[in-house]
Amino acid sequence: MKDNFYQTMHFFIIALSFMLTFQSCHGQPTQKQSTFTMNTNQNLLKAVQNNDTATVIKALEQGADVNHTDEQGRSLLLIATVNKHTEMATLLVKRGADVNLQAHNKDSAFLYAGASGQTALLQLFIAHGARFDLFNRYNGTALIPACERGHIETVRLLANTKGFPIDHVNRLGWTALMEAVILGDGNSKYQQIVQILKDAGANMHIPDHDGVTPLQHARKRGFTEIVNIIQ
């Protein structure tokens, strides 16, 4: 009986030792493997910054992470978008890059493309799952800064995209329309933007935190053409 007990325990210890050894060999990456992956990801980051598509393709084929981020939390796709590397951004999206990843400052490739007026990339990102419920550091959409900066075609695209929150109010209490009125200069570019928003069904009367409407702001600034559009 005693001999059987010791034999059983001996067998159990051997089996446990084998299992731990197997896990150590196969369950976790070795230091060499981890270093290889890290170096590959760093090479990928540099290649995206340098707009080197050949190196990016090679790095991805070697196992680099297409959603790798830098120390600021910026995704590779965001970096390509910031640098206006359209071909690079397209490559990354087709390789599975997440268009919604946000950096530490809340920027994402989709939000930045809107703010910078990169309409072609916006179309690409929308086709690949861009979310409309993720907002920038001002709690704004991609449309709001596009209106501020006068990106007419970007405004046209977003305002007419099904499901896009055209009347979203940011942290300042401003809609896209309000941003165009308050931060625009009333010229023909901003007149077009206000008209696009109106035609797309935007609410023309949402006031700011002080209860002042877009119409009142436009009148105060002497933007006669915009006043006529809003009315």
UniProtKB/TrEMBL annotation:
Pfam families: Ank_2 (PF12796). The keyword Chaperone does not apply. Residues 1-27 form the signal peptide. ANK repeats lie at residues 72-104, 172-209. Coiled coil: none annotated. Keywords: ANK repeat, Repeat, Signal. This is Uncharacterized protein. It comes from Sphingobacterium alimentarium.
